[in-house]
Specification:
Helices cover about 35% and strands about 20% of the residues. The protein has a five-stranded parallel β-sheet. Helix 1 links the parallel strand 1 and strand 2. Helix 1 packs parallel to helix 2. About 30% of the residues are buried. The model has no long low-confidence stretch (mean pLDDT about 95).
Length: about 120
């Protein structure tokens, strides 16, 4: 099984990114053979900014992304979205890489499940 989760919202403010990552982590836990791919678009590109410092007891998107990567999940970041936000020179969390609409299209067509947040 191949799953693609597309995230569009900022890491904090709403809980869409949080819930998307909860789902990704649960898929990896309960269905070990599942290939999980994340695609960060629009304001979700900020999810991959390193050194996030959240208050104790509050979820941390960076740690959640790292947990997905540890279980062989892929994180793709929309290059044009990064450029539009002036983050082109940003170093992102380990395991995340810049991507394109072409690759998003390919991931979409090759996936058994596509979920958007």
């Amino acid at each position: 099984m191949k799953a693609l989760i597309i995230i569009n919202d900022a890491p904090y403010g709403t809980e869409k990114a949080y819930n998307a990552l909860r789902l990704a982590m649960q898929m990896q836990k309960d269905y070990e053979g599942t290939e999980v791919n994340l695609f960060l678009m629009a304001d979700a590109v900020a999810c991959a900014i390193p050194n996030q410092n959240t208050p104790n007891g509050y979820y941390n998107i960076e740690r959640m992304l790292k947990a997905v990567v540890l279980k062989k999940g892929q994180i793709k970041i929309c290059t044009s979205c990064v450029e539009a936000r002036g983050l082109k020179e940003m170093k992102f969390v380990e395991g995340a890489s810049l991507s394109s609409m072409k690759e998003l299209t390919q991931l979409t067509m090759e996936s058994d499940k596509v979920i958007t947040f």
